[in-house]
Write a sequence for this structure.
Protein backbone atom coordinates (compact mmCIF):
# COMPACT_ATOMS: atom_id res chain seq x y z
CA UNK A 1 0.00 0.00 0.00
CA UNK A 2 1.12 3.55 -0.58
CA UNK A 3 0.89 6.48 1.78
CA UNK A 4 0.43 10.07 0.76
CA UNK A 5 3.08 11.21 3.20
CA UNK A 6 6.41 9.34 3.43
CA UNK A 7 6.46 9.72 7.21
CA UNK A 8 3.06 8.07 7.66
CA UNK A 9 3.41 4.93 9.77
CA UNK A 10 0.49 2.62 10.48
CA UNK A 11 2.25 1.33 13.57
CA UNK A 12 2.61 4.82 15.02
CA UNK A 13 -0.47 6.51 13.57
CA UNK A 14 -3.31 7.28 15.95
CA UNK A 15 -4.89 10.15 14.05
CA UNK A 16 -7.81 9.65 11.66
CA UNK A 17 -7.17 9.05 7.98
CA UNK A 18 -8.96 8.20 4.75
CA UNK A 19 -8.08 4.97 2.97
CA UNK A 20 -8.97 4.45 -0.69
CA UNK A 21 -10.88 1.18 -1.17
CA UNK A 22 -11.91 1.64 -4.80
CA UNK A 23 -11.40 4.10 -7.64
CA UNK A 24 -13.56 2.97 -10.57
CA UNK A 25 -17.01 3.98 -11.83
CA UNK A 26 -20.04 2.13 -10.44
CA UNK A 27 -19.59 -1.10 -12.41
CA UNK A 28 -15.92 -1.67 -11.61
CA UNK A 29 -13.17 -2.83 -13.96
CA UNK A 30 -13.52 -4.82 -16.10
CA UNK A 31 -17.15 -4.00 -16.66
CA UNK A 32 -19.86 -6.61 -17.18
CA UNK A 33 -20.24 -7.50 -20.85
CA UNK A 34 -17.10 -5.64 -21.92
CA UNK A 35 -14.72 -7.85 -23.92
CA UNK A 36 -13.00 -5.08 -25.82
CA UNK A 37 -9.20 -4.68 -25.77
CA UNK A 38 -9.30 -2.25 -22.84
CA UNK A 39 -11.27 -4.73 -20.69
CA UNK A 40 -9.63 -8.04 -21.65
CA UNK A 41 -6.53 -7.53 -19.47
CA UNK A 42 -8.81 -7.31 -16.43
CA UNK A 43 -10.57 -10.57 -17.29
CA UNK A 44 -7.30 -12.36 -17.95
CA UNK A 45 -5.33 -11.10 -14.93
CA UNK A 46 -7.13 -10.80 -11.58
CA UNK A 47 -4.51 -8.42 -10.20
CA UNK A 48 -5.61 -5.79 -12.74
CA UNK A 49 -9.22 -5.74 -11.56
CA UNK A 50 -10.44 -2.64 -9.75
CA UNK A 51 -13.46 -2.01 -7.53
CA UNK A 52 -15.98 0.86 -7.57
CA UNK A 53 -15.13 4.08 -5.82
CA UNK A 54 -15.25 3.96 -2.03
CA UNK A 55 -13.33 5.42 0.89
CA UNK A 56 -12.85 4.22 4.44
CA UNK A 57 -12.52 6.68 7.31
CA UNK A 58 -10.32 5.02 9.91
CA UNK A 59 -9.80 6.26 13.47
CA UNK A 60 -7.08 4.01 14.94
CA UNK A 61 -7.11 5.54 18.42
CA UNK A 62 -10.85 4.92 18.77
CA UNK A 63 -11.07 1.68 16.78
CA UNK A 64 -13.79 3.21 14.62
CA UNK A 65 -14.34 2.72 10.90
CA UNK A 66 -16.75 4.38 8.49
CA UNK A 67 -17.38 3.89 4.78
CA UNK A 68 -18.14 6.44 2.11
CA UNK A 69 -20.29 4.49 -0.38
CA UNK A 70 -21.61 0.92 -0.24
CA UNK A 71 -20.53 -0.55 -3.57
CA UNK A 72 -21.50 -3.80 -5.31
CA UNK A 73 -18.07 -5.08 -4.30
CA UNK A 74 -18.56 -4.39 -0.61
CA UNK A 75 -17.28 -7.87 0.44
CA UNK A 76 -13.88 -7.30 -1.17
CA UNK A 77 -13.69 -3.77 0.19
CA UNK A 78 -14.60 -4.84 3.73
CA UNK A 79 -11.80 -7.38 3.54
CA UNK A 80 -9.38 -4.67 2.39
CA UNK A 81 -10.53 -2.58 5.35
CA UNK A 82 -10.03 -5.53 7.70
CA UNK A 83 -6.49 -6.04 6.42
CA UNK A 84 -5.73 -2.33 6.77
CA UNK A 85 -7.34 -1.88 10.19
CA UNK A 86 -8.19 -5.20 11.88
CA UNK A 87 -11.30 -4.99 14.01
CA UNK A 88 -14.22 -7.08 15.10
CA UNK A 89 -16.78 -8.14 12.51
CA UNK A 90 -19.29 -5.70 13.94
CA UNK A 91 -16.94 -2.72 13.98
CA UNK A 92 -18.42 -0.90 10.98
CA UNK A 93 -19.60 2.28 12.64
CA UNK A 94 -21.46 3.84 9.74
CA UNK A 95 -21.82 4.29 5.99
CA UNK A 96 -22.19 7.63 4.20
CA UNK A 97 -23.98 7.49 0.83
CA UNK A 98 -23.74 10.06 -1.96
CA UNK A 99 -26.71 9.00 -4.13
CA UNK A 100 -28.87 6.21 -5.56
CA UNK A 101 -26.83 5.02 -8.53
CA UNK A 102 -25.89 1.36 -8.37
CA UNK A 103 -22.22 1.70 -7.54
CA UNK A 104 -22.87 3.88 -4.52
CA UNK A 105 -25.51 2.12 -2.45
CA UNK A 106 -26.26 -1.40 -3.74
CA UNK A 107 -23.64 -2.96 -1.46
CA UNK A 108 -26.09 -2.41 1.38
CA UNK A 109 -27.61 -5.74 0.33
CA UNK A 110 -24.71 -7.55 1.98
CA UNK A 111 -25.81 -6.22 5.37
CA UNK A 112 -29.06 -8.18 5.17
CA UNK A 113 -30.00 -11.57 6.56
CA UNK A 114 -28.95 -13.43 3.41
CA UNK A 115 -25.39 -12.28 4.11
CA UNK A 116 -23.91 -10.49 7.16
CA UNK A 117 -27.10 -10.10 9.17
CA UNK A 118 -25.75 -6.80 10.45
CA UNK A 119 -27.20 -5.08 13.50
CA UNK A 120 -28.29 -1.44 13.16
CA UNK A 121 -25.39 -0.17 11.06
CA UNK A 122 -25.90 3.60 10.79
CA UNK A 123 -26.49 4.65 7.18
CA UNK A 124 -26.17 8.40 6.60
CA UNK A 125 -28.17 9.66 3.63
CA UNK A 126 -30.03 12.71 2.40
CA UNK A 127 -33.86 12.88 2.75
CA UNK A 128 -34.80 11.52 -0.70
CA UNK A 129 -32.13 8.84 -0.46
CA UNK A 130 -33.39 7.82 2.98
CA UNK A 131 -36.98 7.70 1.73
CA UNK A 132 -35.91 5.62 -1.28
CA UNK A 133 -34.32 3.03 0.99
CA UNK A 134 -37.22 3.03 3.43
CA UNK A 135 -39.98 2.72 0.84
CA UNK A 136 -38.54 0.34 -1.76
CA UNK A 137 -37.64 -3.31 -1.41
CA UNK A 138 -35.35 -5.02 -0.88
CA UNK A 139 -33.77 -2.04 0.90
CA UNK A 140 -36.82 -1.50 3.09
CA UNK A 141 -36.28 -4.96 4.57
CA UNK A 142 -32.90 -3.82 5.86
CA UNK A 143 -34.73 -1.09 7.77
CA UNK A 144 -37.55 -3.34 8.97
CA UNK A 145 -35.16 -6.02 10.23
CA UNK A 146 -32.92 -3.35 11.77
CA UNK A 147 -29.89 -4.39 9.76
CA UNK A 148 -29.41 -0.70 9.10
CA UNK A 149 -30.43 2.44 10.96
CA UNK A 150 -31.14 5.39 8.68
CA UNK A 151 -29.73 8.74 9.77
CA UNK A 152 -30.99 11.54 7.61
CA UNK A 153 -28.55 14.23 6.54
CA UNK A 154 -29.26 17.83 5.59
CA UNK A 155 -27.43 19.98 3.08
CA UNK A 156 -24.46 21.76 4.67
CA UNK A 157 -25.25 20.44 8.16
CA UNK A 158 -22.25 18.88 9.89
CA UNK A 159 -22.13 15.42 11.42
CA UNK A 160 -19.63 15.08 14.28
CA UNK A 161 -17.78 11.75 14.43
CA UNK A 162 -15.48 12.08 17.42
CA UNK A 163 -12.23 13.26 15.75
CA UNK A 164 -13.78 14.11 12.38
CA UNK A 165 -16.57 16.32 11.06
CA UNK A 166 -18.45 15.37 7.89
CA UNK A 167 -20.46 17.95 5.93
CA UNK A 168 -22.67 16.89 3.00
CA UNK A 169 -23.37 19.37 0.21
CA UNK A 170 -25.68 19.06 -2.77
CA UNK A 171 -24.23 18.82 -6.27
CA UNK A 172 -26.03 18.69 -9.64
CA UNK A 173 -26.32 15.19 -11.07
CA UNK A 174 -28.88 12.81 -12.61
CA UNK A 175 -31.14 12.62 -9.57
CA UNK A 176 -33.68 10.02 -10.70
CA UNK A 177 -34.17 8.47 -7.25
CA UNK A 178 -32.29 10.67 -4.79
CA UNK A 179 -30.28 13.80 -4.30
CA UNK A 180 -26.55 13.69 -4.99
CA UNK A 181 -24.01 15.02 -2.52
CA UNK A 182 -20.32 15.43 -2.08
CA UNK A 183 -18.65 15.45 1.32
CA UNK A 184 -16.23 17.73 3.11
CA UNK A 185 -14.35 15.60 5.65
CA UNK A 186 -12.41 17.55 8.28
CA UNK A 187 -9.99 16.06 10.78
CA UNK A 188 -7.80 17.61 13.47
CA UNK A 189 -5.21 18.80 10.95
CA UNK A 190 -6.46 18.39 7.37
CA UNK A 191 -9.59 18.47 5.24
CA UNK A 192 -10.63 16.34 2.27
CA UNK A 193 -13.22 16.96 -0.42
CA UNK A 194 -15.00 13.97 -1.98
CA UNK A 195 -17.07 14.52 -5.14
CA UNK A 196 -17.23 11.22 -7.04
CA UNK A 197 -20.21 12.20 -9.22
CA UNK A 198 -21.29 15.56 -10.60
CA UNK A 199 -22.52 17.06 -13.87
CA UNK A 200 -20.33 19.67 -15.54
CA UNK A 201 -18.53 22.01 -13.14
CA UNK A 202 -20.29 24.92 -14.86
CA UNK A 203 -23.67 23.48 -13.81
CA UNK A 204 -22.83 24.02 -10.15
CA UNK A 205 -23.37 27.32 -8.36
CA UNK A 206 -20.13 26.79 -6.41
CA UNK A 207 -16.65 27.73 -7.65
CA UNK A 208 -14.80 24.42 -7.60
CA UNK A 209 -11.39 26.10 -7.92
CA UNK A 210 -11.99 28.06 -4.72
CA UNK A 211 -13.22 24.91 -3.03
CA UNK A 212 -10.02 23.10 -4.00
CA UNK A 213 -8.00 25.98 -2.56
CA UNK A 214 -9.83 25.57 0.76
CA UNK A 215 -8.91 21.90 1.35
CA UNK A 216 -5.84 19.68 1.56
CA UNK A 217 -7.12 16.91 -0.71
CA UNK A 218 -9.79 17.02 -3.42
CA UNK A 219 -10.98 13.65 -4.73
CA UNK A 220 -12.91 14.61 -7.85
CA UNK A 221 -15.06 13.00 -10.53
CA UNK A 222 -12.92 11.54 -13.33
CA UNK A 223 -15.51 9.28 -14.95
CA UNK A 224 -14.51 10.08 -18.52
CA UNK A 225 -11.29 11.49 -19.90
CA UNK A 226 -12.72 13.13 -23.03
CA UNK A 227 -15.72 13.29 -25.34
CA UNK A 228 -16.15 10.38 -27.73
CA UNK A 229 -14.94 7.84 -25.19
CA UNK A 230 -18.13 5.77 -25.44
CA UNK A 231 -18.19 5.36 -29.20
CA UNK A 232 -21.67 5.99 -30.58
CA UNK A 233 -23.30 6.67 -27.19
CA UNK A 234 -24.48 10.23 -26.58
CA UNK A 235 -22.30 11.32 -23.67
CA UNK A 236 -24.45 14.38 -23.01
CA UNK A 237 -27.02 11.97 -21.52
CA UNK A 238 -24.54 10.98 -18.81
CA UNK A 239 -22.88 14.31 -18.03
CA UNK A 240 -19.65 14.43 -16.07
CA UNK A 241 -16.71 16.85 -16.17
CA UNK A 242 -14.23 15.32 -18.61
CA UNK A 243 -10.79 15.05 -17.06
CA UNK A 244 -9.46 17.02 -20.02
CA UNK A 245 -11.90 19.83 -19.14
CA UNK A 246 -10.98 19.70 -15.46
CA UNK A 247 -7.29 19.95 -16.29
CA UNK A 248 -7.96 23.09 -18.33
CA UNK A 249 -10.12 24.56 -15.57
CA UNK A 250 -7.55 23.88 -12.86
CA UNK A 251 -4.54 24.96 -14.91
CA UNK A 252 -4.69 28.40 -13.26
CA UNK A 253 -4.11 26.88 -9.81
CA UNK A 254 -0.62 26.97 -8.36
CA UNK A 255 1.50 23.82 -8.48
CA UNK A 256 0.85 23.25 -4.77
CA UNK A 257 -2.90 23.61 -5.30
CA UNK A 258 -2.97 21.31 -8.33
CA UNK A 259 -1.20 18.66 -6.24
CA UNK A 260 -4.24 18.59 -3.94
CA UNK A 261 -6.40 17.13 -6.72
CA UNK A 262 -6.87 13.36 -7.00
CA UNK A 263 -8.97 12.10 -9.89
CA UNK A 264 -11.29 9.23 -8.90
CA UNK A 265 -14.44 7.37 -10.11
CA UNK A 266 -12.77 6.31 -13.36
CA UNK A 267 -14.86 4.58 -16.03
CA UNK A 268 -13.64 1.32 -17.56
CA UNK A 269 -13.15 3.19 -20.86
CA UNK A 270 -10.98 5.88 -19.29
CA UNK A 271 -7.26 5.54 -20.10
CA UNK A 272 -6.39 6.84 -16.62
CA UNK A 273 -6.91 3.26 -15.39
CA UNK A 274 -3.64 2.44 -17.15
CA UNK A 275 -0.82 4.15 -15.28
CA UNK A 276 1.36 3.88 -18.39
CA UNK A 277 -1.10 5.50 -20.80
CA UNK A 278 -0.27 8.77 -22.51
CA UNK A 279 -3.24 10.36 -20.75
CA UNK A 280 -2.14 9.21 -17.28
CA UNK A 281 1.33 10.56 -17.85
CA UNK A 282 -0.11 13.87 -19.05
CA UNK A 283 -2.22 14.19 -15.88
CA UNK A 284 0.79 13.53 -13.66
CA UNK A 285 3.03 15.85 -15.70
CA UNK A 286 0.47 18.63 -15.23
CA UNK A 287 0.82 18.27 -11.46
CA UNK A 288 -2.38 16.36 -10.67
CA UNK A 289 -2.81 12.92 -9.09
CA UNK A 290 -4.75 9.79 -10.01
CA UNK A 291 -6.28 7.93 -7.07
CA UNK A 292 -5.28 4.29 -6.63
CA UNK A 293 -6.53 1.68 -4.19
CA UNK A 294 -4.52 1.75 -0.97
CA UNK A 295 -3.68 5.46 -0.91
CA UNK A 296 -3.93 6.98 2.58
CA UNK A 297 -4.86 10.58 3.37
CA UNK A 298 -4.02 11.63 6.96
CA UNK A 299 -6.57 14.00 8.45
Amino acid sequence: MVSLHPGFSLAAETGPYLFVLGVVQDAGYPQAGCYQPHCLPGWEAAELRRTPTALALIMPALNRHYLFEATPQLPEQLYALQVEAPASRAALNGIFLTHAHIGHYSGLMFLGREAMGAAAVPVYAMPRMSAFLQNNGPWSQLVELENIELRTLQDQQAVALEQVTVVPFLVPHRDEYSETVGYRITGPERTALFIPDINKWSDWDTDITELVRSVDYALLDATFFADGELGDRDMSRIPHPFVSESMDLFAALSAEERARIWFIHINHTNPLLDAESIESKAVIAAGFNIAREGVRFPL
Observations:
- Residues 17-294 form a domain with the Metallo-beta-lactamase; Chain A fold (CATH 3.60.15.10).
- The mean pLDDT is 94.
- DSSP finds nine helices and 14 strands in the chain.
- The two ends are 18 Å apart (CA to CA).
